[in-house]
Amino acid sequence: MAQITDFFVGANSGEGFRNLFPEMVDIEDTYDLMVLKGGPGVGKNTFMREVARAMEAAGTAVERLWCSGDPDSLDGVVLPEIRCAVVDGTSPHVVEPQYPAAVDRYVDLGRFYDLTAAKADAEAVKTHTHAYKAAYVRAYHSLKAARQVELDAVASVRAGFDRERAERRISGIISRELRRRGGERGKTTRRFLGSITHKGYVWRFDSVDALCPKVYEFIDSWELAGEGLARLHAAAAAGGWDTVVCPSPEDLNRIEHLLIPGLGLAFVTSRPGMDYGKKPYRRIRLDAMTETGGKTRLRFQARMATLLREEAVAALKEAKANHDKLEAVYNPYVDFDGVRELAAIETGRLLSYLG
Prior knowledge:
By secondary structure, the chain is α/β, with parallel strands linked by helices. The protein is 41% helix and 23% strand. The strands form four sheets. It has a six-stranded mixed beta sheet. Strands 9-13-14-15-12-16 form a six-stranded mixed beta sheet, sandwiched between helices. α1 (44-57) runs parallel beside α8 (336-352) and α4 runs parallel beside α6.
Protein backbone atom coordinates (compact mmCIF):
# COMPACT_ATOMS: atom_id res chain seq x y z
CA MET A 1 0.00 0.00 0.00
CA ALA A 2 1.28 3.47 -0.89
CA GLN A 3 2.38 5.61 2.04
CA ILE A 4 0.23 8.77 2.23
CA THR A 5 1.24 11.68 4.43
CA ASP A 6 -0.33 15.08 4.96
CA PHE A 7 1.37 18.35 5.89
CA PHE A 8 1.17 22.09 5.19
CA VAL A 9 3.79 24.39 3.63
CA GLY A 10 1.81 27.53 4.38
CA ALA A 11 0.33 28.65 7.70
CA ASN A 12 -1.49 31.63 9.23
CA SER A 13 0.14 33.51 12.09
CA GLY A 14 0.38 36.81 13.91
CA GLU A 15 3.04 37.79 11.37
CA GLY A 16 0.71 37.03 8.47
CA PHE A 17 1.09 34.19 5.99
CA ARG A 18 4.05 31.91 6.74
CA ASN A 19 5.59 30.44 3.62
CA LEU A 20 7.68 27.27 3.33
CA PHE A 21 6.91 26.83 -0.36
CA PRO A 22 10.52 27.56 -1.42
CA GLU A 23 11.48 24.48 0.63
CA MET A 24 8.74 22.20 -0.68
CA VAL A 25 11.30 20.26 -2.74
CA ASP A 26 15.06 20.34 -3.12
CA ILE A 27 15.12 21.80 -6.61
CA GLU A 28 18.69 20.58 -7.13
CA ASP A 29 17.48 17.00 -6.66
CA THR A 30 14.11 17.25 -8.44
CA TYR A 31 13.36 15.63 -11.79
CA ASP A 32 10.06 17.31 -12.65
CA LEU A 33 8.16 20.09 -10.85
CA MET A 34 4.88 21.31 -12.31
CA VAL A 35 3.99 24.88 -11.29
CA LEU A 36 0.27 25.46 -11.73
CA LYS A 37 -0.85 28.90 -12.83
CA GLY A 38 -4.39 30.16 -13.11
CA GLY A 39 -6.85 32.13 -11.02
CA PRO A 40 -9.59 31.18 -8.55
CA GLY A 41 -11.90 28.34 -9.45
CA VAL A 42 -9.86 27.28 -12.49
CA GLY A 43 -9.28 23.73 -11.23
CA LYS A 44 -5.86 23.69 -9.55
CA ASN A 45 -7.17 21.60 -6.65
CA THR A 46 -8.98 19.31 -9.10
CA PHE A 47 -5.76 18.82 -11.08
CA MET A 48 -3.71 17.98 -7.98
CA ARG A 49 -6.32 15.61 -6.58
CA GLU A 50 -6.35 13.71 -9.87
CA VAL A 51 -2.57 13.39 -9.78
CA ALA A 52 -2.50 12.32 -6.11
CA ARG A 53 -5.27 9.76 -6.58
CA ALA A 54 -3.64 8.16 -9.62
CA MET A 55 -0.18 7.99 -8.08
CA GLU A 56 -1.56 6.50 -4.87
CA ALA A 57 -3.37 3.86 -6.94
CA ALA A 58 -0.06 3.13 -8.68
CA GLY A 59 1.46 2.30 -5.28
CA THR A 60 3.98 5.12 -4.97
CA ALA A 61 4.36 7.33 -1.89
CA VAL A 62 2.35 10.55 -1.97
CA GLU A 63 2.80 13.59 0.26
CA ARG A 64 -0.24 15.85 0.18
CA LEU A 65 0.25 19.48 1.15
CA TRP A 66 -2.91 21.25 2.27
CA CYS A 67 -4.01 24.87 2.11
CA SER A 68 -4.19 26.93 5.31
CA GLY A 69 -6.96 29.03 3.74
CA ASP A 70 -9.00 25.88 3.07
CA PRO A 71 -7.64 22.70 4.68
CA ASP A 72 -9.82 20.62 2.34
CA SER A 73 -7.94 21.94 -0.71
CA LEU A 74 -4.47 21.03 -1.90
CA ASP A 75 -1.58 23.43 -2.33
CA GLY A 76 0.84 20.78 -3.55
CA VAL A 77 1.65 17.11 -4.08
CA VAL A 78 5.13 15.62 -3.67
CA LEU A 79 6.10 12.23 -5.11
CA PRO A 80 9.43 11.50 -3.38
CA GLU A 81 10.14 8.13 -4.97
CA ILE A 82 10.29 9.66 -8.47
CA ARG A 83 11.53 13.11 -7.36
CA CYS A 84 8.51 14.88 -8.86
CA ALA A 85 5.94 17.34 -7.55
CA VAL A 86 3.11 19.66 -8.50
CA VAL A 87 2.42 22.95 -6.73
CA ASP A 88 -0.04 25.83 -6.80
CA GLY A 89 2.32 28.62 -7.83
CA THR A 90 -0.09 31.54 -7.35
CA SER A 91 -0.38 34.23 -4.65
CA PRO A 92 0.21 34.29 -1.69
CA HIS A 93 2.82 31.59 -2.35
CA VAL A 94 4.12 32.49 -5.79
CA VAL A 95 6.47 29.87 -7.24
CA GLU A 96 8.49 30.46 -10.39
CA PRO A 97 10.64 27.97 -12.33
CA GLN A 98 14.37 28.13 -11.63
CA TYR A 99 15.46 25.68 -14.34
CA PRO A 100 12.63 26.00 -16.89
CA ALA A 101 11.78 22.78 -18.74
CA ALA A 102 14.98 21.10 -17.54
CA VAL A 103 13.55 20.67 -14.03
CA ASP A 104 10.50 22.84 -13.36
CA ARG A 105 7.84 24.17 -15.70
CA TYR A 106 4.59 26.08 -15.91
CA VAL A 107 1.28 24.30 -16.36
CA ASP A 108 -1.20 26.98 -17.45
CA LEU A 109 -4.73 26.19 -16.34
CA GLY A 110 -5.87 29.70 -17.23
CA ARG A 111 -6.41 28.39 -20.76
CA PHE A 112 -9.55 26.66 -19.47
CA TYR A 113 -11.32 29.93 -18.64
CA ASP A 114 -13.96 31.24 -21.04
CA LEU A 115 -12.46 34.74 -21.17
CA THR A 116 -15.38 36.46 -22.85
CA ALA A 117 -17.91 35.10 -20.35
CA ALA A 118 -15.66 35.83 -17.36
CA LYS A 119 -15.18 39.46 -18.36
CA ALA A 120 -18.93 39.93 -18.22
CA ASP A 121 -18.76 39.28 -14.47
CA ALA A 122 -15.78 41.52 -13.76
CA GLU A 123 -17.57 43.59 -11.09
CA ALA A 124 -18.58 40.50 -9.08
CA VAL A 125 -15.01 39.23 -9.30
CA LYS A 126 -13.65 42.54 -7.98
CA THR A 127 -16.19 42.71 -5.15
CA HIS A 128 -15.49 39.21 -3.81
CA THR A 129 -11.72 39.60 -4.26
CA HIS A 130 -11.65 42.81 -2.21
CA ALA A 131 -13.89 41.24 0.46
CA TYR A 132 -11.81 38.10 1.02
CA LYS A 133 -8.53 40.06 1.10
CA ALA A 134 -9.98 42.49 3.66
CA ALA A 135 -11.10 39.57 5.83
CA TYR A 136 -7.55 38.19 5.84
CA VAL A 137 -6.25 41.56 7.02
CA ARG A 138 -8.66 41.45 9.97
CA ALA A 139 -7.70 37.87 10.74
CA TYR A 140 -4.00 38.69 10.85
CA HIS A 141 -4.62 41.73 13.07
CA SER A 142 -6.42 39.50 15.58
CA LEU A 143 -3.70 36.83 15.42
CA LYS A 144 -1.02 39.45 16.00
CA ALA A 145 -2.85 40.80 19.06
CA ALA A 146 -3.27 37.26 20.41
CA ARG A 147 0.42 36.60 19.93
CA GLN A 148 1.43 39.72 21.85
CA VAL A 149 -0.70 38.64 24.83
CA GLU A 150 0.70 35.11 24.58
CA LEU A 151 4.33 36.24 24.48
CA ASP A 152 3.93 38.17 27.71
CA ALA A 153 2.59 35.05 29.44
CA VAL A 154 5.31 32.82 27.97
CA ALA A 155 8.07 35.13 29.19
CA SER A 156 6.61 35.04 32.70
CA VAL A 157 6.48 31.24 32.81
CA ARG A 158 9.93 30.71 31.29
CA ALA A 159 11.52 32.63 34.14
CA GLY A 160 10.61 29.75 36.47
CA PHE A 161 11.48 26.89 34.11
CA ASP A 162 13.88 24.22 35.44
CA ARG A 163 16.08 24.02 32.34
CA GLU A 164 18.66 21.73 33.94
CA ARG A 165 16.00 19.14 34.72
CA ALA A 166 14.66 19.32 31.17
CA GLU A 167 18.16 19.08 29.69
CA ARG A 168 18.84 15.92 31.69
CA ARG A 169 15.72 14.31 30.22
CA ILE A 170 16.78 15.31 26.71
CA SER A 171 20.31 13.96 27.24
CA GLY A 172 18.86 10.64 28.37
CA ILE A 173 16.68 10.42 25.28
CA ILE A 174 19.61 11.19 22.99
CA SER A 175 21.75 8.47 24.55
CA ARG A 176 18.94 5.88 24.37
CA GLU A 177 17.30 6.64 21.06
CA LEU A 178 19.61 8.48 18.68
CA ARG A 179 22.25 5.98 17.75
CA ARG A 180 24.66 7.18 15.10
CA ARG A 181 24.05 5.93 11.60
CA GLY A 182 27.32 7.15 10.18
CA GLY A 183 27.95 8.68 6.80
CA GLU A 184 26.83 12.15 5.80
CA ARG A 185 24.81 14.55 7.90
CA GLY A 186 21.07 13.83 7.71
CA LYS A 187 18.84 15.89 5.44
CA THR A 188 16.27 18.22 7.05
CA THR A 189 12.85 18.82 5.51
CA ARG A 190 10.64 21.55 6.98
CA ARG A 191 6.86 21.23 7.03
CA PHE A 192 4.07 22.71 9.10
CA LEU A 193 2.09 20.03 10.90
CA GLY A 194 -0.92 22.33 10.86
CA SER A 195 -2.30 25.85 11.00
CA ILE A 196 -5.14 27.92 12.30
CA THR A 197 -7.80 27.90 9.56
CA HIS A 198 -11.43 28.84 8.99
CA LYS A 199 -12.20 25.54 10.77
CA GLY A 200 -10.06 26.50 13.76
CA TYR A 201 -6.81 24.67 14.38
CA VAL A 202 -6.11 21.73 12.09
CA TRP A 203 -3.20 19.42 12.97
CA ARG A 204 -2.14 16.36 10.97
CA PHE A 205 -0.89 14.11 13.76
CA ASP A 206 -2.01 11.21 11.56
CA SER A 207 1.13 11.80 9.49
CA VAL A 208 3.25 11.49 12.62
CA ASP A 209 1.72 8.08 13.31
CA ALA A 210 2.08 7.01 9.66
CA LEU A 211 5.82 7.71 9.71
CA CYS A 212 6.79 7.08 13.32
CA PRO A 213 5.31 4.33 15.53
CA LYS A 214 7.30 5.48 18.60
CA VAL A 215 6.16 8.91 19.81
CA TYR A 216 7.43 11.01 22.70
CA GLU A 217 4.89 13.64 23.74
CA PHE A 218 5.95 16.86 25.42
CA ILE A 219 3.17 18.46 27.46
CA ASP A 220 4.06 22.08 26.88
CA SER A 221 1.60 24.95 27.30
CA TRP A 222 4.26 27.66 27.40
CA GLU A 223 6.69 27.07 24.50
CA LEU A 224 9.27 25.36 26.69
CA ALA A 225 10.12 22.45 24.36
CA GLY A 226 11.90 24.39 21.62
CA GLU A 227 15.43 24.18 23.03
CA GLY A 228 15.15 20.46 23.75
CA LEU A 229 13.72 19.71 20.31
CA ALA A 230 16.56 21.70 18.73
CA ARG A 231 19.07 19.52 20.61
CA LEU A 232 17.28 16.36 19.48
CA HIS A 233 17.26 17.58 15.89
CA ALA A 234 20.95 18.45 15.98
CA ALA A 235 21.82 15.02 17.40
CA ALA A 236 19.69 13.19 14.83
CA ALA A 237 21.11 15.14 11.88
CA ALA A 238 24.68 14.74 13.12
CA GLY A 239 24.03 11.01 13.48
CA GLY A 240 23.13 10.77 9.78
CA TRP A 241 19.32 10.60 10.12
CA ASP A 242 16.97 12.47 7.79
CA THR A 243 14.41 14.49 9.72
CA VAL A 244 11.13 16.30 9.22
CA VAL A 245 11.16 19.48 11.29
CA CYS A 246 7.80 21.10 11.99
CA PRO A 247 8.35 24.70 13.13
CA SER A 248 5.82 26.83 14.94
CA PRO A 249 3.86 29.05 12.54
CA GLU A 250 4.33 31.83 15.09
CA ASP A 251 8.11 31.42 15.26
CA LEU A 252 9.85 29.65 12.39
CA ASN A 253 13.02 29.27 14.49
CA ARG A 254 11.21 27.23 17.16
CA ILE A 255 10.59 23.53 16.52
CA GLU A 256 7.22 22.19 17.69
CA HIS A 257 7.46 18.65 16.31
CA LEU A 258 10.34 16.49 15.11
CA LEU A 259 9.99 13.33 13.02
CA ILE A 260 12.82 10.87 12.33
CA PRO A 261 11.20 8.37 9.93
CA GLY A 262 14.34 6.23 9.56
CA LEU A 263 14.15 5.44 13.28
CA GLY A 264 10.35 5.37 13.39
CA LEU A 265 10.71 8.00 16.13
CA ALA A 266 8.86 11.27 16.69
CA PHE A 267 8.76 14.02 19.29
CA VAL A 268 5.54 16.04 19.39
CA THR A 269 4.30 18.93 21.47
CA SER A 270 0.83 19.02 23.01
CA ARG A 271 -0.86 22.13 24.34
CA PRO A 272 -4.41 23.51 24.43
CA GLY A 273 -5.54 23.67 20.82
CA MET A 274 -2.79 21.28 19.66
CA ASP A 275 -3.42 17.98 21.41
CA TYR A 276 -1.74 14.80 20.17
CA GLY A 277 -4.73 12.96 21.61
CA LYS A 278 -3.27 9.43 21.56
CA LYS A 279 -1.24 7.30 23.91
CA PRO A 280 2.44 8.07 23.34
CA TYR A 281 5.43 5.84 24.00
CA ARG A 282 6.55 8.34 26.66
CA ARG A 283 5.00 11.53 28.00
CA ILE A 284 7.24 14.30 29.35
CA ARG A 285 5.42 16.99 31.32
CA LEU A 286 7.39 20.18 30.80
CA ASP A 287 4.57 22.15 32.42
CA ALA A 288 5.48 20.39 35.68
CA MET A 289 9.07 21.65 35.41
CA THR A 290 8.21 25.28 36.01
CA GLU A 291 7.17 27.36 39.01
CA THR A 292 4.40 29.62 37.82
CA GLY A 293 3.44 32.64 39.86
CA GLY A 294 0.53 34.94 39.08
CA LYS A 295 -1.75 32.12 37.96
CA THR A 296 -4.80 34.38 37.90
CA ARG A 297 -3.06 36.68 35.44
CA LEU A 298 -1.92 33.73 33.32
CA ARG A 299 -5.47 32.41 33.12
CA PHE A 300 -6.68 35.87 32.07
CA GLN A 301 -4.01 36.13 29.38
CA ALA A 302 -4.80 32.66 28.07
CA ARG A 303 -8.47 33.56 27.85
CA MET A 304 -7.69 36.84 26.06
CA ALA A 305 -5.49 35.06 23.52
CA THR A 306 -8.22 32.47 22.95
CA LEU A 307 -10.87 35.15 22.36
CA LEU A 308 -8.64 37.01 19.91
CA ARG A 309 -7.97 33.80 17.99
CA GLU A 310 -11.70 33.12 17.88
CA GLU A 311 -12.06 36.54 16.23
CA ALA A 312 -9.37 35.52 13.76
CA VAL A 313 -11.20 32.28 12.94
CA ALA A 314 -14.41 34.26 12.35
CA ALA A 315 -12.53 36.49 9.90
CA LEU A 316 -10.99 33.45 8.19
CA LYS A 317 -14.50 32.01 7.81
CA GLU A 318 -15.57 35.25 6.17
CA ALA A 319 -12.54 35.10 3.88
CA LYS A 320 -13.40 31.52 2.91
CA ALA A 321 -17.04 32.44 2.23
CA ASN A 322 -16.03 35.27 -0.08
CA HIS A 323 -13.45 33.11 -1.82
CA ASP A 324 -16.15 30.49 -2.38
CA LYS A 325 -18.36 33.19 -3.92
CA LEU A 326 -15.47 34.23 -6.14
CA GLU A 327 -14.94 30.66 -7.31
CA ALA A 328 -18.67 30.29 -7.89
CA VAL A 329 -18.52 33.23 -10.30
CA TYR A 330 -15.72 31.58 -12.25
CA ASN A 331 -16.82 27.94 -12.13
CA PRO A 332 -19.45 28.14 -14.92
CA TYR A 333 -16.76 29.55 -17.20
CA VAL A 334 -14.20 26.77 -16.60
CA ASP A 335 -13.75 23.74 -18.83
CA PHE A 336 -13.25 21.16 -16.05
CA ASP A 337 -13.24 18.31 -18.57
CA GLY A 338 -10.22 19.98 -20.13
CA VAL A 339 -8.57 20.30 -16.72
CA ARG A 340 -9.09 16.59 -16.00
CA GLU A 341 -7.86 15.62 -19.46
CA LEU A 342 -4.67 17.61 -18.94
CA ALA A 343 -4.26 16.07 -15.48
CA ALA A 344 -4.56 12.62 -17.05
CA ILE A 345 -1.89 13.46 -19.63
CA GLU A 346 0.50 14.74 -16.98
CA THR A 347 -0.25 11.80 -14.72
CA GLY A 348 0.64 9.47 -17.58
CA ARG A 349 3.97 11.24 -17.83
CA LEU A 350 4.56 10.76 -14.09
CA LEU A 351 3.60 7.08 -14.26
CA SER A 352 6.18 6.60 -17.01
CA TYR A 353 8.87 7.70 -14.54
CA LEU A 354 8.06 4.76 -12.27
CA GLY A 355 9.84 2.45 -14.69
